[in-house]
Amino acid sequence: IHTNLLYSTSNLSIDFLASGGRGEFYNGEDIIARHTLKDEVIEVDQTGRGATKAWEGTSRLGIDYTFSNNDKLSGAYYFKGNSSSTLRDSKTLFTPLSENITSQSLSKSDGSGHSILQNARLQYDGHKGLIAGVDFTRYHKPHELYFWDKSDKGTETNMLNKTEQNVSRYSIFINQTHTISSWQLNYGVQGEYAKSDNLLEYFYDKV
Length: 207
Hints:
The protein has 207 residues and is an all-beta fold. The protein has strands at 2-8, 12-37, 40-66, 72-96, 103-125, 130-151, 156-180, 183-206.
């Protein structure tokens, strides 16, 4: 999906852009392998199936206004986001070739997460060489993964992993340009502040 809108007059311009999509993906594999463990050959027969659902979207809104003295005020907002979830099941059989005994393991994993990126910018361009503005960026990305495994011997394992990332950045700037004959004099100041927070939680249980 893609949308683009534009409105324009002699001193005002507004543009809007949006695009997005979603999908479902499926995968699977059947694997047979032989491994040597303590001088014994073990055949591993594994079947796995997985399904993923995902979407993503992007949008931008921009506004430009020109004053009667040719000063210009511009603003823009940008957004990008995506989300996905994956569910997977697998079955594994372990068979020592020297014995006719097969052990079995069942496992399942469920993962989900999303990310959001936002940016907002406001800028003033003066006809006498002054440029000033502010800029803000925000990024947010949480994710969660759950894993479960159970063997036919009764052993059961549960694991949960949570992560989250948050980043914020602020910026302000002022610049001035003077034209003297064929020379230009530029000076200004810019300040930035950035903050990052990261979270990790891990849970493990085996019975």
